[in-house]
Amino acid sequence: MFRYLVRRFLQMILVFVATTFIVFALMYATGGDPIQALAGERPVSEQQRAQLTKLYGLDQPFLVRYWNYLTGLLRLDFGKALNGRDVSEIIASALPVTAKLALIAIITTIVVGVVAGIIAGVRRGSIFDNSTLVLTLIVIGIPIVTLAPLAQYIFGIKLGWFPATAAGREDDIYALLLPGIILGALSVATAMRLTRASFNENLRSDYVRTARSKGLPGRRVIGVHVLRNSLIPIITFLGIELGALMAGAIVTESVFNVNGIGFNLARALRTEDAPLVVGLVSVLVIIFLVANLIVDLLYAVLDPRIRYE
Amino acid sequence: MTDIHVETERVQGHHLLEVKDLFVEFHTRDGVARVINGVSYHLDPGETLAVLGESGSGKSVTAQAIMGILDMPPAKIPKGQILYNGEDLLKMPEDKRRDIRGQQISMIFQDALSALNPVFSVGWQISETLRTRMGMSKADAMKRAVELMDQVKIPAAKARLKDYPHQFSGGMRQRVMIAMSLAMDPKVLIADEPTTALDVTVQAQIMDLLADLRRDLNMGMILITHDLGVVADVADRIAVMYAGRIIEHADVRALYKQPAHPYTKGLLESIPRLDDKGTVLKTIKGLPPNLMRLPTGCKYHPRCPYTQPICVSDEPRSLNLGNGRTSACHFAKEMLSGELG
Amino acid sequence: MSDFETVAATEFHTAQPGPAGDVNAPSQPHSMETQKPRSAGADAWRELRRKPLFWIGLVLALFALVMAFWPSLFTSADPQTCQLSRRMAPASGGAIFGFDVQGCDVYAKAVYGTKNSLMIGGLAALLAGVVAMLLGVTAGYFGRWWDAIVSRVVDIVLGLPLLLAGIVFMRRVANAGGGANARVWALIAILGLLGWTTAARVIRSSVITAKQQDYVHAARMLGAGHGRIMLRHILPNALAPFIVIITMALGAFIAAEATLSFLGVGLIPPSQSWGLSISEMYPYMRENAIPLAVPSAFLALTVLAFIILGDTIREAFDPKLR
User: Fold this and answer.
1) CB contact under 8 A, C28 and B292
2) CATH class (in words) of the domain with range A88-302
3) ipTM reported for the complex, 2 dp
C-alpha cells in the first residue's frame, strides 16, 4: 500500500508538472511580444510595459519564470491579476461559491440520479426504466450552453420559481439552487445510467443467488448485498465528478452570474487577463487531480479485492 | 408424460422432500426452452441422492426450483409439486417459503468465489442469517460462525473470521460456503456441483466432509454432479437426468452393476478405468438435444446405439423394475438382463 | 464536458466479451444443422433495426449532414446580409423565425452554422479516432516501455479537463492573431488532440484482452506477422467500442465548439456557428428569446443525434442488455 501511495503520488506530480507547464507555456512562451500576449489585444503604453515586465519577471529566462511560478503555486501564490489583485485572493473568495454550487450539484446527483438508477436497475425493462433511459439520453445530449440559458429562461424568467441570476446573492442557497441543479443535470443522467448498469450487473451475479438461497428478504438482498457492490463504481464516479464539476461550472456560473471560479475565469477570458486565467486554470487542475487521487484511494477502501502493490 | 413414481414411498407419512412431476420452461425471445419435463424424485433424512447429468440436462434447474430461486420470468413452472414434509412449496406464500429457504433446505454452489459476496468478510456472511433471521446478537452470531468454521475444518477459524473470500484457497472457500449453508441447521442440503471447480485432491476432501456432515447432522443431501466417479462413494441412490427427465433411478450399487438405460451405460463406459490399459475409451456420440426443439419419441434416440423405430415414434414411460428402480427406456428389461449391449 | 466519455467507458466495462448468460438460463446446446452461425455484427444490426430511437438519431444526423453540405437547399437567404432596420423583426417570407438583434435572418444563420459545427465535430472526431487507434493499438499490442509512455501521456492529457485545455489553447491561438478561418482549424486540431484519451484506453484494453486469446497465439505460431495479427485478429474486437466512443465524441466536440465560442475563445465572425449565435444572442434573451432558441435547438438536436446513435449502437453490441 505504501509503495502504491508513493508511486501514485509521483505520478500525480508528473501530471501536475506537465499540465501546469502546458498551461504556463501557452500563456507566456509566445513567439512574439510577451507583454502584448499578457495584455491581449489592448494597446500597451511604455509605462505599463515596464511595470508588467517587472511584475511578471519577463526579463528572466522562460524556465526560471516557470520555476518561480511552480514554487509560487506550492506556497499558494498564484501570481497577480492584471488589475493588481492577488489571484489567490480572488480564488479565496470564489472557491467557496463554486464549492457550494458543486455540492448542490452532487446532492442532486445522488438524490435524483442514484435513486432513479437503483429503481431502474431493479425494475429493468419497466416503463420507469425505459422512460428514464430516454430522458437521461436527452439530458446528456443537450449541451450545457443550451440547457443553462433554457432553464434560466423558463424557471427564472417565465415561471419565476427561482432567481434568474445569483449575482450578489452567493450566500443565499436558494439563489444557487437552479444553477446547482443545472450543473448537476449532466451528472444526474450519467449517475443514473451508471447506477442502473451497475445494479443490473450485480443483480445477476452468483452471490445474489446465494443471498436469496439463504432466505434473505428481497429488500435485504438488494439493499445490502447488491447495493454495497454497486456503490463502488458510483462513489468513484461521484468523486471524479466533483472535481470535473468545478471545471464544468464555467458556463453555468457565467449564465447565472454566480461569482465563482468559473465566472471569474470567463470574465478573465473576456478581459484577456492572462495571469488570472493561468491561476484559475491551475487551481481547477489541482482540484481535479486531487479528486482523482482521493477516489483512487477510496476505491481500495471500498473494494477489499483491490490491493495496491 | 407420467413418470410412475418409485414405490419406496412410505405408505404412511411423507418423504422429507419430494419432487412430483415437475415441469419448468424458460420463455426467451428465441422461443420456449422446455428444461424440465416431468421430473420426480424424493429424499429421506440421512440419505444422499445423487442427481447426475450433462450440462443442460436440468439437474441444477430442478434444484433451483426446489430452493425457489429461479427467476420467474423467464422461468415458468406450468405443472408439478415440490413437497417438503408433505407441504407443497409451490403453493406456499412467498414469506412462508422464505422461512424454509436456508432454514430447512439450504444450498451450496459450484464456484464459491463468485457465490460468496466479494465485499463482505466470511464471518459476516456466515453469521448474516443468524443475526437477521435468528435474532442472535452480533457477538453470539460471530461465535457461532467460528464454531461452524471449525466444524467444516477451516484451520485457525477465529483468525480468519475477518478475511474476505478472495483471501481463501478454492477448497477453503468451498468450506466457507458449506459453513454458511449449515448456519441454520437445515434438514436438506443441496450441493450443486460442489467440487467441479476444485483440484482433484481437494475434491475428495470436500466430498468426505460433506459425507461426514450429512451423517453427523442426519441431513438429507442432494448431490448434483456430472461426474459419475464422484458419486460412487457418497451417494445412496442415483437419479440420471437427460433432457429434463429422469431416465434412470436406482440404488448406487445396482446401477453400477448393470445400467438399465443406454445413456447410463454410455456414461459408465466413458469413465476411464485403470484395468483397461490400451483399449480406446468409449464416448457417447453426438450432442445433447436442443431444448427449444426436442426430438420426437425418446429424447435420447438420436444418440442411442440401440435405436429402434418405436424409439423415434413413442416416448418411453418410466418403467418400474422393482427395488425402487426405474428406467425410461422401451428396452429397459432387455438392458437389465444384459440381452442388449 | 467529458460525461459522454464516462457513460461510454463505464458502461462498456460491463460489456466485456465472455460468458454472458443469465445464471438461471439453461445452457442451450445448438444442434449444428439447424442453427446458422450469427456474427456479432449481424446480431447487433438485427437489434438496431427494431429500435425507433436509433432511426431517430440516424435521420437527425443525416439531416444535419445534408444541411451542412447543401445549406442552400434549406434557405435562399444569405446569412451575411443583415440590415439593422430589421432588428428583432418578426417572421416574414423565408425568414420563418424572424430576425435577430443585428437584423440577420435567424433561420438562415442557423442553417449555415451547421457546416462549421459538423465539420469541426467530424474532423476532430476523425483526428481523435486516428490518434486513439494508433496509440491504443500499439500500446496494447507491444506493451513494455511504449505502453508506459502512452499511459503517462494519457494521464497528462486527462489531467487537463477538455474544456479548460480548450480555453487555454484557444486563447493562445487568439493571441497569435489567427483569423476566423485559422480558428476553425485550430479548434479541430485542439479538440482532436485532446479528445482521444478515452477511446485509446478502451482500445488498449480490448487489444490486451484479445492478445491473450488462444487464437491469437495460434496465429502467431503459424507465423503471422504483427501487422496481420493486428489487422485480422485484434482490431475487429476493438471496433465496436471504438465506433461508439467516436460517435459520441463527435457529438461532444460539437458541444465543445459551441461552449468555447460561447465563452469567446472559439470561432469569431464572419464564421457562422451555433455557439457563436448563442453567445451573441444570449444577452438579448429577455427582449426576444427566439434568436437564441433557434441555434440552441439546432445544436441540441444535432448533438443529441450523435449521442443517441452512439448509445443505441453500444446497447446493440452489448449482449448482456438483451
Assistant:
1) yes
2) mainly alpha
3) 0.81
